[in-house]
Amino acid sequence: MEFGPIIDFINEHNRFILTAHETPDGDALGSEYALFLALSKLGKKVKIFNADPAPEKFSFIKTAAKAVVLKDPEQVPKDIDQYVLIVLDVSDLNNIGQIADLILPRVKTCFIIDHHENDSDTLGGNLIQKSASSTAEILYLLFREMEIEVDLEMAQSLYMAIVFDTGSFIYPKTTAITFEIARDLVTKGVNPNFIYANIYESNSISSLLLFSNVLATLELKLDNHVAIQTMTKEMIIATNGKYEEADQIINTPLKSEEIRVSIFFKENPAGMKRCSMRSKGNINVAEIAQSYGGGGHKTAAGFKCRDSFEQTKIELLERLKIYFPKA
Ligand SMILES: [Mn+2]
């Protein structure tokens, strides 16, 4: 990995704003926390601004890093023109919400650190490593290069990010490097079961009921190779479940051997519609997501739905047909 440009960027500037993609996930938050702590150690002034709140389940990480939700222009530092922006875990600047309007045009410059497949925006510098399991993996290697000591607080943040983005070390971008890093973080005192339990065994009963509603919508298409599930805002309201606790539902159909693609249509309580896709093997769902203005990885991607779920469903099945010629 070419760390020169990001190291120069860090050395040349003193005030940093960190952000990540909308609806930040474990990797987005863990990466922000770890980089916040690393930059603070170097004596830099650092702030984290996100478009959306951090899901409750990640609050078990006790850290000095505070991810602030940017809601109104008053929150922007007065000396914003003295700051630079580092965008983490996303390379499409359409996916950083109001940060793109309130922060990006007013900072000195910006740098992107990411591992998604999208064609990246290049407003400033870029460190894109598509083969990395997570943004946190790239950051760990950067800290090692810069000889920044990873303390327990940073180690927990990085580990949370890696566990989240690899589905506990099983998704396709999990490599020997991922395990080497995990080994070092555990050596530093991270407790793997503690992190796992907080991420994957901490949902509410309401969300379990929401899950049962969503699973009941399951449709099997293209000779049982494609599973489709739908979560409406009515289901969220009726069960009192949490939208952000529904992120694992998409993985359930993939446990069946025949299922090669899992599609999840979801609507948040405000009525915003999204489509997430997961696949096995060679089916590139990132390519499909990109054609709808979204992005992701080859086997995990998503986009915002402009049309109805029904219309989008028809189009997606049409696109997926080529993978299942016998269906
Ligand atoms: Mn990530």
Features of this protein?
alpha/beta; inorganic pyrophosphatase (n-terminal core); Diaminopimelate Epimerase, Chain A, domain 1; 2 domains; 6-stranded mixed sheet; globular; binds manganese (II) ion
Which percent bin holds the helix content? 25-40%
Tell me the Rg in angstroms: 20 Å
Question: What is the H/E string?
Answer: HEHEEEHEEHHHHHEEHEEHEEH
Task: Supply the helix-strand structural class.
Answer: alpha/beta
How many beta-strand elements? 12
Number of helices: 11
For the record, the CATH architecture of the largest domain stands as Alpha-Beta Complex
**Count of spatially separate domains:** 2
Mean pLDDT: 95
Note the topology.
Blueprint: H1 4-12, E1 15-20, H2 26-41, E2 45-50, E3 67-69, E4 84-88, H3 99-102, E5 110-114, E6 125-128, H4 135-146, H5 152-166, H6 176-187, H7 192-200, H8 205-215, E7 219-221, E8 226-231, H9 233-239, E9 261-267, E10 273-279, H10 285-291, E11 295-297, E12 300-304, H11 309-320
Parallel strand pairs: 1-2, 1-4, 2-3, 4-5, 5-6, 8-9
Antiparallel strand pairs: 7-8, 9-10, 10-12, 11-12
Helix pairs in contact: 2-4, 2-5, 4-5, 5-6, 5-7, 8-9
The structure holds manganese (II) ion.
